């Protein structure tokens, strides 16, 4: 049994109604205590939290899941994915699991979903007691998606490029956003690639999920204002060697929110929770239980 199989063996696939349709969603819950809800990024799945979960579970109920279209969750054919709908999924899933209040820990794609949840705070089905964000394109004009991602969004060219999206291409492209000090393990990357590509009815799930980039631009004012106006305690754990959402986003955070609780990790890239999980776990626990024992 490989690491991905072990991760999934500790969870389950449940039925959740989203936009009036029942969908199969993979969910994993470990530990006891106040709940931490972990929202993963693109192009991976909840499996990206595998190295950090053991540090958190002795102190919290740790809940993670695969967004619709990711990992072991359902990947509907000919589907148009939406951040708005993924936020609906978070609310519905929390209700199904009996979670009324959570600390939200969100990275990349998941952090954009988190900003939508913050924007609908007064009518959100779950109360967010604290929100901790990791590297993400929080400000649309400061985010620098990779050339390949931008190309995949071009209608005809993107469809052609999607056919050439091999495991080798995936590993090379993802490794580019890790820091030089903490390179992506190719064996781990292969498991993430498998999780992304399996059960994809149209063979281009990675392209469909990238719709979050133009969607973020369209909702920039709503989601950026949510960070400014929220009364939820906010923290930011940032890999500064990230070429897509690193220093430029951190600098903008400092500019707009000089008082922000922003932790800068100079030796981490775009995926700090995968690159330096012990340090990120310590950052998280200091903000949820005080200094961990």
UniProtKB/TrEMBL annotation:
<dbReference type="Pfam" id="PF00561">
    <property type="entry name" value="Abhydrolase_1"/>
</dbReference>
<dbReference type="InterPro" id="IPR050266">
    <property type="entry name" value="AB_hydrolase_sf"/>
</dbReference>
<dbReference type="InterPro" id="IPR000639">
    <property type="entry name" value="Epox_hydrolase-like"/>
</dbReference>
<dbReference type="InterPro" id="IPR000073">
    <property type="entry name" value="AB_hydrolase_1"/>
</dbReference>
<dbReference type="GO" id="GO:0016020">
    <property type="term" value="C:membrane"/>
</dbReference>
<dbReference type="GO" id="GO:0046464">
    <property type="term" value="P:acylglycerol catabolic process"/>
</dbReference>
<dbReference type="InterPro" id="IPR029058">
    <property type="entry name" value="AB_hydrolase_fold"/>
</dbReference>
<feature type="domain" description="AB hydrolase-1">
    <location>
        <begin position="35"/>
        <end position="275"/>
    </location>
</feature>
<keyword id="KW-0378">Hydrolase</keyword>
<dbReference type="GO" id="GO:0047372">
    <property type="term" value="F:monoacylglycerol lipase activity"/>
</dbReference>
<protein>
    <submittedName>
        <fullName>Alpha/beta fold hydrolase</fullName>
    </submittedName>
</protein>
């Amino acid at each position: 049994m490989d690491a991905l199989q072990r991760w999934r063996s500790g969870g389950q696939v449940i039925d959740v109604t989203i936009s009036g349709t029942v969908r199969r969603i993979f969910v994993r819950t470990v530990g006891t205590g106040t709940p931490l809800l972990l929202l993963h990024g693109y192009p991976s799945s909840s499996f990206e939290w595998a190295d950090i979960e053991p540090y958190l579970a002795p102190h919290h109920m740790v809940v993670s899941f695969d967004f619709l279209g990711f990992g072991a969750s359902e990947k509907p054919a000919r589907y148009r994915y939406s951040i708005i709908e993924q936020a609906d999924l978070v609310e519905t899933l929390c209700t199904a699991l009996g979670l009324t209040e959570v600390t939200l820990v969100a990275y990349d794609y998941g952090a954009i979903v988190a900003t939508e949840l913050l924007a609908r705070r007064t009518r959100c089905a779950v109360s967010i007691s604290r929100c901790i964000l990791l590297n993400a394109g929080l400000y649309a004009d400061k985010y620098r998606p990779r050339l390949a991602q931008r190309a995949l969004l071009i209608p005809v060219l993107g469809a052609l490029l999607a056919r050439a999206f091999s495991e080798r291409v995936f590993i090379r492209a993802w490794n580019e956003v890790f820091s030089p000090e903490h390179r992506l393990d190719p064996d781990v990357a292969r498991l993430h690639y498998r999780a992304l590509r399996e059960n994809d009815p149209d063979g281009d799930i990675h392209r469909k999920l990238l719709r979050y980039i133009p969607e973020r631009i369209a909702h920039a004012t709503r989601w950026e204002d949510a960070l400014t106006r929220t009364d939820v305690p906010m923290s930011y754990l940032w890999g500064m060697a990230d070429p897509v959402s690193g220093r430029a986003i951190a600098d903008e955070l400092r500019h707009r929110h000089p008082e922000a609780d922003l932790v800068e990790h100079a030796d981490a890239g775009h995926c700090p929770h995968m690159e330096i999980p012990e340090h990120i776990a310590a950052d998280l626990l200091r903000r949820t239980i005080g200094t961990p024992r």
